[in-house]
Amino acid sequence: MEKYKVGVIGGTGMVGQRFVTLMENHPWFELKVIAASPRSAGKTYEEAVGGRWAMDTPIPEQAKNLVVMNAEADVAAIAAQVDFVFSAVDMKKEEIKALEEQYAQQECPVVSNNSAHRWTPDVPMVIPELNPEHIKVVEAQRKRLGMRRGFIAVKSNCSIQSYVPALHPLRGFGLEKILVCTYQAISGAGKTFQTWPEMVDNLIPYIGGEEEKSEQEPMKVWGHVENGVIVNAEKPAITAQCLRVPVSNGHTAAVFVDFAKKPPMDEMKAIWAEFKGRPQELQLPMAPKQFLHYFEEPDRPQSRLDRDLERGMAVSIGRLRPDTQYDYKFVCLSHNTLRGAAGGAVELAELLCAEGYITRR
């Protein structure tokens, strides 16, 4: 199979680094370009990341000697070398929107980890197992922007990719009301304990903007396509509280849920065990064979074992029990830089390739 040529825009940050590691030995994708800010441009990737490499594995050999390009100044040159790009740039929101549109207008598809375009009505925000049908709005987006093969697709916020996948297969029972408390790792802020030592033995009960994303983004994921745009769902009502906790990787969520028709607990567990989405049907390289894993042990630690299930791409669920104010409560965990960020975007790119939206130049 001829591989797709890939660029990573914003390749020196934590999510960009994760994209670079995921391209190593990927069966479909080959890393051709890394781009970043002007201060990194012109250096080899190894020089540019220097002592800031935050991954558990070494810098991939194929990336070390790539000369970093200027993500803003070299748009046309980058687009000409690749079939599509991943975007993980660290800029102001309006600047990100403009930059991603520049790449798309160069007929270069953009698969973005950034939040800038999540609320653009004809930009699909896709968790591949949950709402793959949303990618069809790409055609309306192309028409609006006058493009032939370029477009922008985004992944959702990492905080919702633990509890929304767990709730999604249960929608047939009528999700009415949800309370969620998220306990989010420091890598979600692009940090390690070396760069953020004050988080050791600490907890921050507020993450700016995160609660709004956690309450609103599921409404787009659970929406429907109508007249070339995504119309948000009206239910369920979600309220969220988001905390930063002293954990390297992995976002945990405590979920309280009310249903229109309360399901039996055994049926919920069976639905989780049997759930499959479009990525599993297509056997995409990043897709976990079993997407949702339920563990019975009530005191099971939310450990690295849970976080790294299926190469970090699965969701771990446990402690399902009745609640006095809601029908049920449970906890769930996902790997935030894999399932929630770069890995989810890679799986989205695989889906876009498999469905013919990304093609080779």
UniProtKB/TrEMBL annotation:
Keyword list, A-Z: NADP, Oxidoreductase
The protein, known as: Aspartate-semialdehyde dehydrogenase
Short name of one Pfam family: Semialdhyde_dh
EC numbers, comma separated: 1.2.1.11
GO molecular function annotation: aspartate-semialdehyde dehydrogenase activity; NAD binding; NADP binding; protein dimerization activity
UniProt keyword annotation of Lipid metabolism present: no
Active site: residue positions: C158, H251
Family per similarity comment: Belongs to the aspartate-semialdehyde dehydrogenase family.
GO biological process: methionine biosynthetic process; threonine biosynthetic process
Source species taxonomy: Bacteria, Bacillati, Bacillota, Clostridia, Eubacteriales
Top-tier EC class: oxidoreductase
Domain Semialdehyde dehydrogenase NAD-binding: 5-138
